[in-house]
Amino acid sequence: MQPSLSKQGQGTFTVPGSQIRVDHLSRMIATRAKKTVILDDVTFTVPAQSLFAINGPSGSGKSTLLNMLTGIDRPSSGRVIFEGQELRAMSEDGLARWRGKHVGIIFQFFQLIPTLTAIENVLLALELGGGGGLKRREWRQHALKCLALAHIKDLADRMPSALSGGEQQRVAIARALANNPPVIIADEPTGNLDSRTAHQVFETLSSLRQYGKTVVYVTHAPELAALASARIDLLDGRIVDSYQAQAIIAAPPQPEAHAVGGDLEKPGVNDPQVSTALPPRGGDAK
Ligand SMILES: Nc1ncnc2c1ncn2[C@@H]1O[C@H](COP(=O)(O)OP(=O)(O)OP(=O)(O)O)[C@@H](O)[C@H]1O
Ligand SMILES: [Mg+2]
User: Fold this and answer.
1) Which of 43, 56, 173, 237 has the greatest number of beta carbons closer than 10 A?
2) Which tens digits make up the pLDDT trace of 140-153?
3) Which residue CA neighbors atom 17 of ligand 1 most closely?
4) What does the DSSP 8-state code read for residue 255?
5) Residue 132 confidence (pLDDT)
6) What SS3 class is residue 210?
7) With 90 as the cut, is the pLDDT of residue 270 above it?
């Protein structure tokens, strides 16, 4: 059942028990000729295990904001506090290591490596992220688990060119899970798919909450924004509206099978060869 949403109003949006806190964040681009404000004093929190939408028209600052959440870009002022850790305090190298463990990123155009199979794309992410605390001989099995969670395990050995757009995005979801990050961040993840496929892929993405993931996604599709458990609406770099499901404030959704430190297992998705249990998250990069 879709939780009811309560209107939070303009300006700021904060809830207790947050996983990501964005505090008076602004992003300006200054050239000699002019100063452009892309994000203007944005404050909100992303509740743990929420399905969090950043909604707004083209040019409203959605991707710029995501780049701040992932530490790809730095704010002109304000701060992002991610699980208690302030991103601006980290060096570029530290941020890159941190990103590999804490966020899985999904793009509109999938951005798979075209010369690698589906499973090799997941394995590469695992390699780049430091192996997720697993022994190398466990990697393939783990990559298959990630592909199973994204419902694309059967096509593990296909090249991206032999996959449909929806299938490629499922591989991208599996890749985002490779290092078992607590947060998945997706920029228009279904923007390049037909509406039926978009809804199927979105359903897979939102199902990740059952494994304890927080899913933050950008959209300008009202029907997808409406499915969020919490949402901010951006216009011209400002929050103009926000919503929060009451159920989230009262009690975040629990995974069906609880796991400590991100070691997740959900009955029902297992198959005889591949369990969906993910390993514990590796040590934090500080
Ligand atoms: N490096 C930059 N220099 C100048 N302007 C920029 C820069 N990056 C982004 N912008 C401007 O900031 C605004 C917000 O851009 P952003 O890409 O965040 O929008 P968006 O909401 O993601 O749009 P879309 O839905 O089209 O992807 C746009 O007007 C864009 O032109
Ligand atoms: Mg964008």
Assistant:
1) 173
2) 999 999 999 999 99
3) 63
4) P
5) 78
6) helix
7) no
The pocket around ligand 1, CB under 6 angstroms, is made up of 29, 36, 38, 56, 58-64, 220
Whether pLDDT at 1 is above 50: no
User: Is residue 286 scored above 50 in pLDDT?
Assistant: no
Q: How far is the CA of 187 from the centre of ligand 2 (A)?
A: 7
Range 249-253 contact pairs with CB under 8 angstroms and sequence separation of 24 or more: 249/15, 249/16, 249/47, 252/17, 252/47, 252/48, 252/49, 252/50, 253/49, 253/209, 253/210
State how far the Cα of 84 lies from the Cα of 78, in Å rounded to an integer: 15
d(CA 184, CA 161): 25
H-state helical runs in 31-187? 62-69, 92-102, 118-128, 139-149, 165-177
CB 171 within 8 A of CB 112: yes
The confidence score (pLDDT) of residue 244 equals 85
How far, in Å, is the centroid of ligand 1 from the Cα of 145?
36
**Domains, the chain, with CATH or none:** 20-253 (3.40.50.300)
pLDDT of 176: 97
| Mean pLDDT for all residues in the chain | 83
Q: Is the pLDDT of residue 16 over 70?
A: no
Q: What is the mean pLDDT of residues 61-74?
A: 95
Cα(151) to centroid of ligand 1, in Å? 33
Q: Cα(43) to centroid of ligand 1, in Å?
A: 19
Ligand closest to CA 68: 1
Residue 237 alpha carbon, nearest atom of ligand 1: 14
